[in-house]
Amino acid sequence: xxxxxKPLKIREGRVYYVVFFGNVEGDMDDREKLPVIIRHxxxxxxxxxxxxxxxxxxxxxxxxxGVKARIAEAVKEIIQSNNLLQEALxxxxxx
Length: 95
Known about the structure:
The chain is an alpha+beta fold. Helices cover 69% and strands 16% of the residues. The two termini are 19 Å apart.
């Protein structure tokens, strides 16, 4: 079973989605769910990166250069996390 996205709500001009995996207990085993969930995590992380960057700029404009730097560092870590998740996904697909 493939995951389905349905609009959850619209707030501040953005559409937020919820991912439905169906009856995960009956329809999918863990081997089937794992790549779906990893793809969801990657997309979820990517969805936040631009927002974090915008808030980093806002923090800087407010005079919080250190806060901007920490947020920028967090973005790098999220990108690295996604790279590791991509590697995990490739390993799953190769097996």
